[in-house]
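Researcher: Here's a chain I'd like modeled. Treat it as a single chain, no partners, no ligands.
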Amino acid sequence: MTRLRPPPVSLLDKFHGPAFEPLYETTVRVSGGEAQHGRASGIVRSDDGALQLALRLPAELGGPGGGTNPEQLFAAGYAACFHGALNLLAARHGITLDGAEVAVSVAFGRDPVDGLHTLSAEVAIALPGVDRPLAEALVRQTERLCPYAKMARQGIASVVRLAP
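Model: Modeled as a single isolated chain. Structure tokens:
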């Protein structure tokens, strides 16, 4: 059995190049399921088969609940990415983070700008045993490093197209 290990600290090395350099790509597909509606009854599948789950509309939005939803998936990705980046930075500085936890709360709601919908996120980091000034510095550095935090702050390159 392979022992799980964190990624190498070399992921923190700066990249200098003329264009975006992908290090990993994945594709996840959602089909409509029973209600023919991805949010209400969607089936999520990653191309490598590692992710497969049912989406369900939460009771707060008029659904039955009982499954996961896009907000939970986004919160999970954000929290995992931030936690990983935080630990990489700490490792680079020789700091061990025992019991570190990242909680991301995502809210789906009405957008006062256009009257449609938007998301908001709040990230709470617990670093037990780490002095407050050091913890604050690590969190601020992680905020600049974590791709999810960068995306939430400044947007993301995104192309929407109709498949052939």
